[in-house]
Amino acid sequence: MEAKKNPKKDLNKSSGVFFAAGMVMVLALTYVALEWKTFYGKEYDVSENIILELVEEVPIIRLEPPPPPPPPPVAPKEIKVVEDDDPIIESFIDLPEPNQATEVAILEDLDFQIVPEEVDVPFILVEDAPVFPGCENASNKRACFNTKMLRHIKKTFRYPEIAQEMGIQGKVHMHFIIQKDGNIGNVQIVRSPDKNLGAEATRIINKLPKMIPGKQRGNAVRVPFSIPITFELQ
């Protein structure tokens, strides 16, 4: 039997289009079926979707009243007097009785010497501040003292080589006393970041020249002085 199909018609030409259209329809029907919702005469409450969660339960604190104070002690009804039969021991100091033959020492005949108490007067409180050499004729001797002190530090300053190699720097706080004779004494390191920097700062202070001592009420006094020396690498 001969085939009756028209050889000019290609039936597979649009098969891909029809297949894609069929798949889209099947997916659409499936989506509608899954999303279809039916209500049975009861209104839907949106608030049912809200889930209440407590992040942290807050404890309830109850303030208890303070306990009442204890009652005062009850005084005894009867007071008993206890007799003390122990004898009282008294001590007497046996002093010689003065008479006309007793010699009385006269204060003027005693050999004694009044030694004034050493009092340190701070630099900012002393009446006449110590005078740095070269500041004798300055109108403000305290300001001249500070200027000369800084010049002395810059002139005698040497950065320790070992501290430079190790990159050590910082401030060394020094304390010393200008004595009654104008010399520098009691040189102390208050605080230092390194022992080599402290040794150099001590050397600088010991190089200070002799000064005119400070005076309080016309008398020479010891005047303590503190100064920081900064070591900074360039």
Automatic annotation (TrEMBL):
Residue ranges constituting the TonB C-terminal domain according to the UniProt record: 144-234
Subcellular location: Cell inner membrane
Family per similarity comment: Belongs to the TonB family.
GO cellular component: outer membrane-bounded periplasmic space; plasma membrane protein complex
SUPFAM superfamilies with a match to the protein in the record: TolA/TonB C-terminal domain
Name of the molecule in the record: Energy transducer TonB
TM segment ranges: 16-34
Keyword Cell inner membrane among UniProt keywords: yes
Main location: membrane
GO biological process: protein transport; siderophore transport; transmembrane transport
